[in-house]
């Protein structure tokens, strides 16, 4: 990697990683809440 482009690529990579982590955390939280809800309140 070129040092000049390292900052730009690192920022974009960090943003992509943050979006992926947020999406993964959001989906896991939704799934966990769904599992807990199904166990606590059987529909």
Description:
With 43 residues, the chain is mainly α. It is built from one helix and no strands. The radius of gyration is 18 Å and the shape is rod-shaped. It starts with a helix and ends with a helix.
Quick structural summary:
The chain is mostly helical and 43 residues long. The chain has 1 helix and no strands. The chain has one helix at 3-40.
Topology:
Layout: H1 3-40
The portion of residues assigned to helices is: over 70%
Extract low-pLDDT stretches: none
Beta-strand segment tally: 0
Major sheet size, sense and barrel closure: none
Count of helical regions: 1
Instruction: Label the structural class.
Output: mainly alpha
Name the features:
mainly alpha; 1 helix; 0% strand; rod-shaped
């Amino acid at each position: 990697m070129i040092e000049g482009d390292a900052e730009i690529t690192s920022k974009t990579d960090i943003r992509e990683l943050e979006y992926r982590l947020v999406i993964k955390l959001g989906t896991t939280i939704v799934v966990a809440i769904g599992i807990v809800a199904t166990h606590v309140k059987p529909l």
